[in-house]
Amino acid sequence: MVRAAYSLTTLLNQLNRLAPNRSKLSDGGIGDPAHAARISDHNPDANNIYHARDYTHDPAGGLDCQWLANELTRSADIRIKYIIWNRRIWTGYWATYNGSSPHTEHLHLSVNARGDDPREWELGDDMAIEDIERMVWKGGNVPGSIAAGTLIANVEELERMVWKGGSVTGSIAPESLIGRVDKLTVAVAELVELVKGQMT
Ligand SMILES: [Zn+2]
To answer: In angstroms, how far is CA 67 from the centroid of its own chain?
Structure first.
């Protein structure tokens, strides 16, 4: 049976969770006849696995492909073969892309031989932040109280943001995080890992 490399489906599922109402107009998996006529990672290989997917650019619907491009390239995930987005191609660095489609309607992701590794992609996304919020609340659910990309200076600031001004000093033991953080300012993505390590 023909299928996508597993990591492409993992990313699709992550994006659908992140933006459940996003447009899928320009989503693409297996190649259409136009693709099949030329060499494309959208075409299945000898094992009936295809190695590329397109993800629709729909900022209003919650998926901005510039954000996605930023997140994927920032992570420099070893499964990436290349990304094409908005007239540029990324293969470890960005270069001008002159293909027939400018790729402004969708981001194209090709994965390499590691593409069947199904682990989640490192997106500094709301899901991860919600994970923090849930962990901080020890089971409570306060999605949206921290904006994606927010920098957090220290544990007490995190507590204030999560609790929206409530005073909850001490709900996280400061040494639990700070003892392991060299700089006090950590990005949310790093914090996710730290909090997971401490609280699970
Ligand atoms: Zn494509």
So the answer is: 9
| pTM of the predicted structure, to 2 decimals | 0.64
Distance 135 CA to ligand 1 centre (A): 37
Beta carbons of 107 and 58 less than 8 angstroms apart = no
End-to-end CA distance of the chain: 38
Give the lowest-confidence range in 12-21, 91-100, 117-126, 177-186: 177-186
Q: How far is the CA of 42 from the centre of ligand 1 (A)?
A: 7
The two three-digit tokens of residue 57, written as one number? 């650019």
Tokens linked to 173 = 């033991």
What residues have CB less than 8 Å from 66, skipping those under 6 apart?
85, 86
Note whether 19 and 148 are within 8 A (CB): no
Position 46 scores a pLDDT of 92
Say how many Å lie between the CA of residue 101 and the centre of ligand 1: 9
